[in-house]
Amino acid sequence: MLKDRRILLVIGGGIAAYKSLDLIRRLRERGAHVRCAVTKAGQEFVTPLSIGALCGGRAFTDLFDVQSEFDVGHIRLARDTDIVVVAPATADLVAKMAGGHADDLASTVLLATDKPVLLAPAMNPRMWDNRATQRNVEQLKADGRHFVGPNTGEMAEANEAGIGRMAEPLEIVAAIEGLLASPAAAGPLAGRHVLITSGPTHEPIDPVRYIANRSSGKQGHAIASAAARAGARVTLISGPVHLPDPAGVHVVKVETAREMMQAVEKALPADVGIFAAAVADWGIDAPGAQKMKKGRSGPPQLSLTENPDILATVAARKSARPRLVIGFAAETENVIEHARAKLQRKGCDWIVANDVSPQTGVMGGDRNSVHLVTGAGIESWPQQSKDAVARALVAKIAAALS
Length: 402
Ligand code: C5P
Fold this sequence. Notes:
Layout: E1 6-11, H1 17-29, E2 33-38, H2 48-55, E3 59-60, H3 66-71, H4 74-79, E4 83-89, H5 91-99, H6 105-112, E5 117-121, H7 125-129, H8 131-142, E6 146-147, E7 151-154, E8 161-165, H9 169-181, H10 183-186, E9 193-198, E10 203-206, E11 209-211, H11 218-229, E12 233-238, E13 250-253, H12 257-267, E14 272-275, E15 282-284, E16 304-306, H13 310-315, E17 324-331, H14 335-346, E18 350-355, E19 367-368, E20 370-374, E21 377-380, E22 384-385, H15 386-401
Parallel strand pairs: 1-2, 1-4, 2-3, 4-5, 5-6, 9-12, 9-14, 12-13, 14-17, 17-18
Antiparallel strand pairs: 7-8, 10-11, 15-16, 18-20, 19-22, 20-21
Cytidine-5'-monophosphate binds at residues 197, 257, 275, 277, 279, 281, 307, 309-311, 327-329, 342.
């Protein structure tokens, strides 16, 4: 199953690097094409000569090596592969990846790649347990990076044991096979980052009361799920909903429109932004710190303040604007005319418009009938399940990006 698959192996500087030589052999036995980049520290443990001899090419070592830039170039090295495997992934490489550093060939390739990345960490147990490393690992998982190991056992250092041993070569082979076999690796959105907002927002009045709306989040969550199944890295920014987190999706939970705006800014850049949340247009100016009491002076006056328009803000960005910005229009009358006007007003690329009048049962229901309004025209889709709408939308997105 690895026959003719292309694997870029990044070898970091740890004693476990000797196992990476065996990993190269195991991969090539299975018919894979292996290219190797080795860090400066890695070269202290295994030489470019032995790596080159085993992988049947040359080991790439230096970002500013004219010869390797001439041969392939670091961007092609990062992209002309089916998967990037980092073994051993040292604490330093993990930190560099989490921070987005690019000061040598290995870190630059890891920042530039649009392919699945698998890390096989190897380090001293104290370094693995260190909160900085654990924070970095959490960040990388949130970024959609995959991990195999580390395992528990004896360390190279005398009298040290614990979690930190690099996974064995055959375990790494199995993890690579698993990733390449998953539909996500081959999916039409592989390597893309899709950002989705979903659900309602809650705007607090006081610690126990809030303003909300009837959005269930079903359509936004279904799109997140479909995008993940199509291979995208998905960040789902969700208001309060009663739905399970979709599999394979990084979920960020928020309550208010302002929190949602901040989470969206933090999650950018993305290739696609889909704004399916029913965001409250107004929040309470100064929510009470204590529960409001029934007073003698009659009902309280609530002073409202305008919330940011997340969709319009992202669509208007000069930098890091997603290539495709998609808004939703939930209307109760003149659906298409309103959607057309909204496309203009919000500055987005597409609008998914639907009729949410109570008699349609769309709000909170499992079915939806939508019109896709783009610069090119309008498509009216038949009524179908929200999952089917999600799949159709994801297929349209994949076609538009390809
Ligand atoms: O203006 P209206 O609420 O009808 O527009 C709906 C579209 O705008 C949806 O895509 C919704 O997610 C988005 N929106 C937003 N931020 C707001 C209000 C709406 O992102 N404050």
